[in-house]
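Q: Got one fold?
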Amino acid sequence: MKFRKPPAHECYGFLISMPLIGWYVHYILYGDRIYHEPKLWFVSFPILFALAVVSWYTHFQYHSYITRQFPGLNLSAKRIFFKLFVYPLVMVPSVIIIHAIYAHFHIMGYTYSTVALRGWLLQGIVVNLVFETLWEVFYIIQQYKENLSEKELLQQMRTEQEFENLKAQVNPHFLFNCFNTLSGLIYEDKIRAERFLNELSNVYRYLLNANKNDLTSLSNEIRFIQSFLELLKTRYGPALEVKINVNEEYFPYLVPSLSLQMLVENAVKHNVLSKKQPLLIELYTAKNPALIVKNTLQPKQVKETSTGIGLKNIRAKYHLLNKEHFEAGIEEDMYIVKLPLIKENNRTI
């Protein structure tokens, strides 16, 4: 288990409450002696404080672990349920151990007392219940604020992506190339021309609807990219090779909308395509589960300008969805991007 540093508000809460807790514990252990024997405070309180720090730190680590396992607002019920186990797992053993130390070593003349142990356990339950409730309320408020901030950021990213997509949709260069290809096909092969026109309409229909959702199913994205690739293959011919090997069991999983288009466009935009040196693009699923998109690296001598917003957008969306395994990099003359596949019930925003 990864140990985390307690935040300042929890440290202050412990330090502020400790004098009151210390007074109550000493009262049930020593009774009225606490008012007449100052030495008792100088000897016993530092010992109690040191033992309480260990108990509190253990309590915090358990609390932190449960929070990491069930982080979202939609998981609050599970988080609260498992936090209840802090009583039998941390609080009760801590009280028994500290009480046993006091009784065994007869600290300031204390001897074992069942009444004192019961009072201590009752105090522990009440204090922990109060602080657990406060920390959970603070956590929910914090998560609510973060979700609002993340949704605003996601909306901003969506607006930027929509702007980029709209520019791509009306890109005269792209349209010119498509119509030029279509014009040539009409005279050469009417069947291929009809198929090309159908794929072009499929691509633009998907582009117009994709911005309504941040995520889409893998099956939808694969169908779209197949149409998009058909346009590119018709234009580039044998200069472009495509291999798609996607396991259908992952079709219900989700990916950021239009992520594949961005990756394929980048591959075509920044690499040389020729019959002697065809560009290979591969799409396949891994068991993680993830979708792998890779292409051969054969950079153009004159590099085209790139805003880089598409890749940053995809990475940021995965971050907001608490999916931190998005990867992009170069391996053995191949540019490889790993898109984690998301289960519908694992969404956190």
